[in-house]
Amino acid sequence: MSENTASAASDDAQSRAVTASREINAPAVRIFELIADPSHQPRWDGNDNLREAAEGQRVHAVGDVFAMTLTKGKVRENHVVAFEEGREIAWMPASQGEQPAGHRWGWRLTPLADDVTVVEHIYDWSQLTDESRFDRARSTTAEMLMASIDRLAELAESGGAGHLDPDGGTGTVA
């Protein structure tokens, strides 16, 4: 049986972070593909604030930027700041044409077996300096992060469309 964990750090400048994690019964490569291809993110976003992302923006490296349209119509450019294929990805969002504000969304995947992966989701706002954004940052809870992990688990465990097929290519596996 998998163990779910969630925690929120204190509100000082050194530890403004929220995390959640759980085991997912799917290969890390399948889970990672659902995260690294932004066109899939609205399907598993537990915050329900992503409307869409164009296809063809699959992340491959630190420095990549992908755009998402939020439910309110605003476009966010997400600057990739950590990337290890199949293991870790993190990005810092910014308003269109601007630099990131200082908060970071990240994912770490740790395979336990061929078809079992621990997935950790992290929201870190320790570099956020715009105090007008603090209330919104504080409102991001471990339960919200877990909602994203749970939705991601549903997709990955059911074979989620657009993941890597057993031969290593991209596409849908029947």
TrEMBL record:
Signal peptide: none annotated. It comes from the Bacteria. Pfam families: Polyketide_cyc2 (PF10604). Residues 1-12 have a biased composition (Low complexity). Gene3D superfamilies: 3.30.530.20. Residues 1-21 are annotated as: Disordered. This is SRPBCC family protein.
